[in-house]
Specification:
Layout (H helix, E strand, L loop, with lengths): L2 H25 L29 H5 L14 H20 L3 H23 L4 H21 L8 H26 L6 H14 L1 H30 L2 H10 L12 H24 L1
Helix pairs in contact: 1-3, 1-4, 3-4, 4-5, 4-10, 5-6, 5-7, 6-7, 6-8, 7-8, 7-10, 8-10
């Protein structure tokens, strides 16, 4: 197989997996099977034929609308397919046709599904995290047997990292609950960090949590809080200021949205971050 053909195949496979990822994002939060029933229009129930379900191409051919009811098809579908396809293409382009490239591609794909689902539904399905956990440990064992160098954790560190990642986020959630008097972390965040810790190892799991906290703080202070304040009416603000009881209640921020990209950043640049911290 020529290198060019291998890259084309990587993109095509990635786009197809992106199509399946869309199914998982749509169905797992509603506790539906990702196998049955076959794909249907969520508005009119029209059963989508196989030739109407080709990644990227079908959405373009249908002009982004259902063939039956002509209601718009979310742009999320082709975007996810494109991003996952490019992720797989980049992984195999940079790392060659190797197990390491496959591990990177799967890792990023799972985290993309986690981030989108948590952003839309405030939920991290076990289907993503438990599959990721078993994949991380299983692929670590295979890489160890093949003696393939890897940026991922070895089998021993994978097990320790899973415990460290889950334990750290569980403790952070407990402390947040004590301080805020309400739930601060969901179980999905715990299983997500078990997966990330198994893939990255214990040290990088800690880095992931700190990077996620930094990202979350920047987004909250720079985006969420200003938007929330701006949406309040001038009358409300003046009344509350007069009463001396200003209370801004921003919407809850799903932490998985920040843990997922933080894990990718840590995988790619974690060692550089640690070196920079030590030098600083």
């Amino acid at each position: 197989m020529t290198p060019t053909l291998a890259l084309v195949l990587a993109f095509v496979v990635g786009a197809c997996i992106g199509s399946f990822l869309n199914v998982c994002i749509a169905r797992w939060p509603r506790e539906l099977s990702v196998v049955r029933p076959p794909s249907r229009c969520p508005r009119c129930g029209y059963r989508i034929r196989w030739y109407e379900n080709i990644p990227l191409a079908s959405w373009v051919a249908l002009r982004g609308r259902c063939r039956c009811c002509e209601e718009p098809i979310s742009v999320q579908y082709p975007l996810v397919e494109l991003v996952v396809g490019l992720t797989w293409l980049t992984a195999f382009w940079q790392l060659g046709v190797t197990l390491e490239a496959l591990r990177v591609a799967v890792f990023v794909t799972i985290l993309l599904g986690v981030a989108i689902t948590d952003a839309k539904h405030y939920l991290i399905p076990d289907g993503f995290t438990l599959f990721g956990l078993f994949w991380a440990i299983g692929s670590a064992v295979i890489a160890y047997i093949l003696a393939e160098p890897s940026r991922f954790a070895d089998p021993k560190d994978a097990l320790i990292g899973a415990c460290a990642g889950a334990g750290m986020i569980a403790i952070a959630g407990w402390l947040g609950e004590v301080a805020l008097k309400k739930e601060a972390m969901g179980l999905g965040d715990v299983t997500l960090m078990a997966f990330a810790g198994a893939a990255l190892g214990p040290a990088m799991a800690i880095v992931t949590v700190f990077v996620a906290a930094l990202l979350g703080t920047l987004v909250f202070l720079g985006v969420v809080y200003p938007i929330t304040w701006a949406r309040r009416s001038a009358f409300q603000q003046q009344t509350e200021l007069a009463l001396g009881a200003v209370r801004v209640e921003p919407p809850p921020v799903p932490f998985g949205v920040f843990l997922a990209p933080a894990a990718v950043v840590t995988l790619l640049w974690g060692n550089a971050l640690i070196s920079w911290i030590y030098r600083a």
